[in-house]
Protein backbone atom coordinates (compact mmCIF):
# COMPACT_ATOMS: atom_id res chain seq x y z
CA UNK A 1 0.00 0.00 0.00
CA UNK A 2 1.34 3.41 -1.00
CA UNK A 3 0.37 6.05 1.55
CA UNK A 4 1.18 9.74 1.19
CA UNK A 5 1.44 11.69 4.44
CA UNK A 6 1.08 15.46 4.91
CA UNK A 7 1.97 17.25 8.14
CA UNK A 8 1.81 21.06 8.05
CA UNK A 9 3.40 22.84 11.01
CA UNK A 10 3.45 26.48 12.02
CA UNK A 11 6.62 27.23 10.03
CA UNK A 12 7.18 23.94 8.21
CA UNK A 13 5.61 21.42 5.87
CA UNK A 14 6.62 17.76 6.12
CA UNK A 15 5.61 15.12 3.59
CA UNK A 16 6.45 11.45 3.15
CA UNK A 17 5.62 8.40 1.08
CA UNK A 18 5.16 5.10 2.88
CA UNK A 19 4.93 1.61 1.50
CA UNK A 20 2.89 -0.07 4.19
CA UNK A 21 4.65 1.03 7.42
CA UNK A 22 8.03 1.79 5.82
CA UNK A 23 9.01 5.31 4.82
CA UNK A 24 10.52 5.20 1.32
CA UNK A 25 10.74 8.95 0.66
CA UNK A 26 10.45 12.09 2.72
CA UNK A 27 10.83 15.81 2.20
CA UNK A 28 10.09 19.03 3.99
CA UNK A 29 10.91 22.66 4.30
CA UNK A 30 11.06 25.52 6.75
CA UNK A 31 8.91 28.42 5.58
CA UNK A 32 10.56 31.77 6.33
CA UNK A 33 8.50 34.11 8.48
CA UNK A 34 8.68 36.84 5.83
CA UNK A 35 6.93 34.50 3.38
CA UNK A 36 4.19 33.49 5.80
CA UNK A 37 3.63 37.07 7.00
CA UNK A 38 2.14 38.00 3.64
CA UNK A 39 -0.88 35.76 4.32
CA UNK A 40 -3.69 37.31 6.33
CA UNK A 41 -4.98 33.97 7.63
CA UNK A 42 -4.02 30.31 7.85
CA UNK A 43 -6.51 29.36 5.14
CA UNK A 44 -4.82 31.85 2.81
CA UNK A 45 -1.71 29.64 2.98
CA UNK A 46 -3.56 26.73 1.35
CA UNK A 47 -2.33 27.16 -2.23
CA UNK A 48 1.16 28.10 -1.06
CA UNK A 49 1.52 24.89 0.95
CA UNK A 50 -0.15 22.71 -1.68
CA UNK A 51 2.07 24.10 -4.46
CA UNK A 52 5.17 23.28 -2.40
CA UNK A 53 4.01 19.66 -2.05
CA UNK A 54 3.24 19.27 -5.74
CA UNK A 55 6.64 20.74 -6.69
CA UNK A 56 8.44 18.33 -4.39
CA UNK A 57 6.61 15.36 -5.87
CA UNK A 58 7.31 16.49 -9.42
CA UNK A 59 10.99 17.18 -8.78
CA UNK A 60 11.36 13.72 -7.21
CA UNK A 61 9.49 12.00 -10.07
CA UNK A 62 6.85 10.63 -7.72
CA UNK A 63 3.56 10.17 -9.59
CA UNK A 64 0.20 10.93 -8.00
CA UNK A 65 -0.63 7.25 -7.63
CA UNK A 66 -1.39 6.50 -4.01
CA UNK A 67 -3.68 4.10 -2.19
CA UNK A 68 -4.47 6.79 0.38
CA UNK A 69 -3.51 10.33 1.38
CA UNK A 70 -3.63 11.24 5.05
CA UNK A 71 -3.17 14.65 6.61
CA UNK A 72 -2.64 15.82 10.16
CA UNK A 73 -5.98 16.40 11.84
CA UNK A 74 -6.99 19.95 12.66
CA UNK A 75 -8.92 21.85 15.32
CA UNK A 76 -12.32 20.41 14.56
CA UNK A 77 -15.14 20.19 17.06
CA UNK A 78 -14.62 17.65 19.85
CA UNK A 79 -14.67 14.10 18.49
CA UNK A 80 -13.67 10.52 19.24
CA UNK A 81 -10.25 9.01 18.63
CA UNK A 82 -9.71 7.17 15.36
CA UNK A 83 -9.35 7.44 11.59
CA UNK A 84 -11.76 9.68 9.69
CA UNK A 85 -12.42 9.89 5.96
CA UNK A 86 -12.32 13.53 4.91
CA UNK A 87 -15.91 14.62 4.29
CA UNK A 88 -17.54 17.88 3.26
CA UNK A 89 -18.50 18.45 6.90
CA UNK A 90 -14.91 17.97 8.03
CA UNK A 91 -13.66 20.36 5.35
CA UNK A 92 -16.24 22.96 6.35
CA UNK A 93 -15.23 22.75 10.01
CA UNK A 94 -11.52 22.92 9.15
CA UNK A 95 -12.06 26.05 7.05
CA UNK A 96 -14.23 27.66 9.72
CA UNK A 97 -12.38 26.24 12.72
CA UNK A 98 -12.87 27.95 16.08
CA UNK A 99 -9.11 28.49 16.23
CA UNK A 100 -6.89 29.11 13.24
CA UNK A 101 -3.86 26.83 13.15
CA UNK A 102 -1.98 25.55 10.13
CA UNK A 103 -2.74 21.94 11.11
CA UNK A 104 -6.24 22.70 9.78
CA UNK A 105 -4.77 22.57 6.27
CA UNK A 106 -3.68 18.92 6.55
CA UNK A 107 -7.05 17.37 5.80
CA UNK A 108 -7.90 19.97 3.16
CA UNK A 109 -4.74 19.38 1.13
CA UNK A 110 -5.01 15.61 1.63
CA UNK A 111 -8.51 15.65 0.16
CA UNK A 112 -7.41 17.69 -2.86
CA UNK A 113 -4.47 15.40 -3.66
CA UNK A 114 -6.57 12.28 -3.09
CA UNK A 115 -9.09 13.48 -5.66
CA UNK A 116 -6.26 14.04 -8.13
CA UNK A 117 -5.19 10.40 -7.86
CA UNK A 118 -8.55 8.76 -7.18
CA UNK A 119 -7.94 7.43 -3.67
CA UNK A 120 -9.41 8.06 -0.19
CA UNK A 121 -8.31 10.92 2.03
CA UNK A 122 -8.05 10.54 5.80
CA UNK A 123 -7.19 12.36 8.99
CA UNK A 124 -6.50 10.62 12.30
CA UNK A 125 -6.56 11.49 16.00
CA UNK A 126 -6.89 15.27 15.66
CA UNK A 127 -5.83 17.48 18.56
CA UNK A 128 -9.47 17.75 19.69
CA UNK A 129 -9.97 14.05 20.49
CA UNK A 130 -12.43 14.12 23.40
CA UNK A 131 -12.92 11.06 25.59
CA UNK A 132 -13.34 12.91 28.90
CA UNK A 133 -15.14 11.38 31.84
CA UNK A 134 -17.96 13.67 33.07
CA UNK A 135 -16.02 14.83 36.13
CA UNK A 136 -13.22 16.14 33.91
CA UNK A 137 -15.39 18.74 32.20
CA UNK A 138 -16.68 20.90 35.05
CA UNK A 139 -14.92 23.90 36.59
CA UNK A 140 -15.94 26.18 39.44
CA UNK A 141 -17.77 28.43 36.97
CA UNK A 142 -20.74 27.07 34.96
CA UNK A 143 -19.79 29.42 32.10
CA UNK A 144 -16.41 27.70 31.69
CA UNK A 145 -16.04 24.02 30.84
CA UNK A 146 -12.73 22.22 30.40
CA UNK A 147 -11.99 21.08 26.87
CA UNK A 148 -9.75 18.34 25.52
CA UNK A 149 -6.90 19.67 23.38
CA UNK A 150 -3.68 17.72 23.42
CA UNK A 151 -1.09 15.85 21.36
CA UNK A 152 -3.59 13.10 20.60
CA UNK A 153 -1.86 11.64 17.55
CA UNK A 154 1.50 11.02 19.22
CA UNK A 155 0.07 10.19 22.66
CA UNK A 156 -2.22 7.51 21.22
CA UNK A 157 0.40 6.11 18.84
CA UNK A 158 3.11 5.90 21.49
CA UNK A 159 0.68 4.21 23.89
CA UNK A 160 -0.19 1.56 21.31
CA UNK A 161 3.49 1.05 20.57
CA UNK A 162 4.25 0.55 24.25
CA UNK A 163 1.33 -1.85 24.65
CA UNK A 164 2.56 -3.86 21.65
CA UNK A 165 6.00 -4.15 23.28
CA UNK A 166 4.25 -5.91 26.16
CA UNK A 167 2.12 -8.05 23.81
CA UNK A 168 -0.92 -6.49 25.42
CA UNK A 169 -3.77 -4.48 23.90
CA UNK A 170 -3.70 -0.75 24.54
CA UNK A 171 -7.26 -1.08 25.81
CA UNK A 172 -6.09 -3.23 28.74
CA UNK A 173 -3.69 -0.65 30.21
CA UNK A 174 -3.76 2.41 32.42
CA UNK A 175 -1.09 4.85 31.22
CA UNK A 176 0.06 8.39 31.94
CA UNK A 177 1.60 9.95 28.85
CA UNK A 178 3.61 13.18 29.17
CA UNK A 179 4.19 14.70 25.74
CA UNK A 180 7.03 17.16 26.25
CA UNK A 181 7.41 19.58 23.36
CA UNK A 182 6.75 23.23 22.51
CA UNK A 183 3.49 22.55 24.31
CA UNK A 184 3.18 19.98 27.08
CA UNK A 185 0.23 17.65 27.59
CA UNK A 186 -0.10 15.03 30.32
CA UNK A 187 -2.89 12.58 29.60
CA UNK A 188 -4.55 9.79 31.62
CA UNK A 189 -5.29 6.76 29.41
CA UNK A 190 -7.81 4.41 31.00
CA UNK A 191 -8.39 1.23 28.99
CA UNK A 192 -7.90 2.95 25.64
CA UNK A 193 -9.58 6.28 26.38
CA UNK A 194 -8.04 9.58 27.48
CA UNK A 195 -10.33 10.42 30.37
CA UNK A 196 -8.48 13.58 31.39
CA UNK A 197 -5.69 15.81 30.04
CA UNK A 198 -4.65 19.41 30.46
CA UNK A 199 -5.50 21.84 27.66
CA UNK A 200 -2.06 21.93 26.09
CA UNK A 201 -2.78 24.78 23.69
CA UNK A 202 -4.06 27.87 25.40
CA UNK A 203 -3.84 27.90 29.13
CA UNK A 204 -3.80 24.91 31.47
CA UNK A 205 -1.35 22.52 33.09
CA UNK A 206 2.45 22.80 33.07
CA UNK A 207 4.15 25.78 31.52
CA UNK A 208 6.25 24.82 28.54
CA UNK A 209 8.84 26.27 26.17
CA UNK A 210 6.15 28.43 24.52
CA UNK A 211 3.03 28.33 26.72
CA UNK A 212 2.10 29.82 30.06
CA UNK A 213 0.11 26.90 31.45
CA UNK A 214 -2.05 27.34 34.56
CA UNK A 215 -1.86 30.83 36.11
CA UNK A 216 -3.16 32.27 39.40
CA UNK A 217 -6.63 33.39 38.30
CA UNK A 218 -6.93 36.64 40.25
CA UNK A 219 -3.49 37.88 39.23
CA UNK A 220 -4.16 36.95 35.62
CA UNK A 221 -7.49 38.82 35.69
CA UNK A 222 -5.67 41.89 37.01
CA UNK A 223 -3.15 41.60 34.18
CA UNK A 224 -5.93 41.31 31.59
CA UNK A 225 -7.56 44.53 32.83
CA UNK A 226 -4.34 46.43 33.48
CA UNK A 227 -4.58 48.26 30.16
CA UNK A 228 -1.15 47.02 29.13
CA UNK A 229 -2.39 44.36 26.72
CA UNK A 230 -5.04 43.88 24.06
CA UNK A 231 -6.92 40.56 23.92
CA UNK A 232 -4.76 39.30 21.07
CA UNK A 233 -1.62 40.09 23.08
CA UNK A 234 -2.98 38.29 26.16
CA UNK A 235 -3.71 35.20 24.07
CA UNK A 236 -0.18 35.35 22.66
CA UNK A 237 1.20 35.36 26.20
CA UNK A 238 -0.74 32.17 26.86
CA UNK A 239 0.40 30.46 23.66
CA UNK A 240 3.49 31.57 21.80
CA UNK A 241 5.23 34.00 24.14
CA UNK A 242 4.75 32.33 27.50
CA UNK A 243 6.75 29.74 29.42
CA UNK A 244 10.49 29.53 28.80
CA UNK A 245 10.33 32.23 26.11
CA UNK A 246 8.80 34.69 28.59
CA UNK A 247 11.40 33.92 31.26
CA UNK A 248 14.52 33.32 29.18
CA UNK A 249 13.85 34.85 25.78
CA UNK A 250 14.38 31.51 24.05
CA UNK A 251 12.70 28.11 23.64
CA UNK A 252 15.90 26.38 22.54
CA UNK A 253 15.86 23.38 24.86
CA UNK A 254 19.39 22.10 24.05
CA UNK A 255 20.87 25.50 24.92
CA UNK A 256 18.72 25.92 28.02
CA UNK A 257 19.48 22.42 29.35
CA UNK A 258 23.19 22.84 28.68
CA UNK A 259 23.29 26.07 30.70
CA UNK A 260 21.02 24.64 33.40
CA UNK A 261 23.18 21.55 33.80
CA UNK A 262 26.15 23.84 34.47
CA UNK A 263 24.17 25.61 37.19
CA UNK A 264 23.80 28.85 35.23
CA UNK A 265 20.98 31.08 36.39
CA UNK A 266 18.20 31.81 35.60
CA UNK A 267 18.26 28.82 33.23
CA UNK A 268 18.55 26.24 36.01
CA UNK A 269 15.78 27.67 38.18
CA UNK A 270 13.32 28.27 35.35
CA UNK A 271 13.85 24.88 33.70
CA UNK A 272 13.59 23.08 37.03
CA UNK A 273 10.35 24.96 37.74
CA UNK A 274 8.92 23.83 34.40
CA UNK A 275 9.83 20.21 35.17
CA UNK A 276 8.23 20.62 38.59
CA UNK A 277 4.93 21.68 36.99
CA UNK A 278 5.09 18.63 34.70
CA UNK A 279 5.61 16.36 37.72
CA UNK A 280 2.62 17.91 39.49
CA UNK A 281 0.44 17.28 36.43
CA UNK A 282 1.62 13.66 36.29
CA UNK A 283 0.62 13.37 39.95
CA UNK A 284 -2.84 14.73 39.10
CA UNK A 285 -3.29 12.12 36.37
CA UNK A 286 -2.12 9.43 38.82
CA UNK A 287 -5.05 10.43 41.04
CA UNK A 288 -7.35 10.37 38.00
CA UNK A 289 -6.41 6.69 37.51
CA UNK A 290 -7.01 5.90 41.21
CA UNK A 291 -3.28 5.29 41.62
CA UNK A 292 -3.37 2.36 39.19
CA UNK A 293 -0.92 3.32 36.44
CA UNK A 294 0.87 0.57 34.52
CA UNK A 295 3.48 3.05 33.28
CA UNK A 296 4.36 6.71 32.89
CA UNK A 297 5.54 7.37 29.33
CA UNK A 298 7.77 10.39 28.59
CA UNK A 299 7.65 11.35 24.92
CA UNK A 300 8.08 14.39 22.65
CA UNK A 301 11.22 16.31 21.77
CA UNK A 302 12.21 17.26 25.32
CA UNK A 303 12.33 13.57 26.25
CA UNK A 304 15.63 13.48 24.32
CA UNK A 305 17.13 15.63 27.10
CA UNK A 306 18.83 13.45 29.68
CA UNK A 307 18.87 16.38 32.11
CA UNK A 308 15.09 16.94 31.90
CA UNK A 309 14.29 13.23 32.03
CA UNK A 310 16.47 12.61 35.09
CA UNK A 311 15.10 15.66 36.93
CA UNK A 312 11.57 14.48 36.22
CA UNK A 313 12.25 10.88 37.21
CA UNK A 314 13.43 12.03 40.63
CA UNK A 315 9.94 13.35 41.34
CA UNK A 316 7.77 10.60 39.82
CA UNK A 317 9.71 7.30 39.84
CA UNK A 318 7.84 5.93 42.84
CA UNK A 319 4.41 6.27 41.17
CA UNK A 320 4.86 3.74 38.34
CA UNK A 321 7.56 2.48 35.95
CA UNK A 322 8.87 5.39 33.88
CA UNK A 323 9.30 4.60 30.18
CA UNK A 324 11.18 7.04 27.93
CA UNK A 325 10.07 7.05 24.27
CA UNK A 326 11.48 10.33 22.94
CA UNK A 327 10.46 12.21 19.83
CA UNK A 328 7.16 12.38 18.06
CA UNK A 329 6.80 10.19 14.99
CA UNK A 330 3.70 11.94 13.68
CA UNK A 331 4.44 10.91 10.10
CA UNK A 332 4.74 7.24 11.02
CA UNK A 333 1.63 7.45 13.21
CA UNK A 334 -0.40 8.92 10.37
CA UNK A 335 0.82 6.24 7.95
CA UNK A 336 0.02 3.53 10.51
CA UNK A 337 -3.54 4.84 10.87
CA UNK A 338 -4.11 5.05 7.11
CA UNK A 339 -2.76 1.54 6.57
CA UNK A 340 -4.96 0.18 9.34
CA UNK A 341 -7.99 1.80 7.72
CA UNK A 342 -7.13 0.42 4.27
CA UNK A 343 -6.62 -3.08 5.67
CA UNK A 344 -9.79 -2.98 7.73
CA UNK A 345 -7.86 -3.30 11.00
CA UNK A 346 -8.94 0.16 12.19
CA UNK A 347 -12.62 1.07 11.75
CA UNK A 348 -13.45 4.33 10.02
CA UNK A 349 -15.10 6.83 12.33
CA UNK A 350 -18.00 9.11 11.42
CA UNK A 351 -17.61 12.78 12.18
CA UNK A 352 -20.90 14.13 13.53
CA UNK A 353 -20.08 16.47 16.43
CA UNK A 354 -23.52 18.03 16.80
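-> sequence recovered:
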Amino acid sequence: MKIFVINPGSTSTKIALYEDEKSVWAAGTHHPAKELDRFKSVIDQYEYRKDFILRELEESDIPLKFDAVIGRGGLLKPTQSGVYPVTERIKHDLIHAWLQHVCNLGGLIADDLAKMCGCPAFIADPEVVDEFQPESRLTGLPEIRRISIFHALNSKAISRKYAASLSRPYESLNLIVAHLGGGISVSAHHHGKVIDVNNALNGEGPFSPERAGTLPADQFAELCYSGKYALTQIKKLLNGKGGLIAHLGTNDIPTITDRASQGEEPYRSVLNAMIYTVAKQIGAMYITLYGEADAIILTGGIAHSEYCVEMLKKRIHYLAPVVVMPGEDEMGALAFNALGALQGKLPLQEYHPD
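Residues 267-288 form the longest helix (22 residues).
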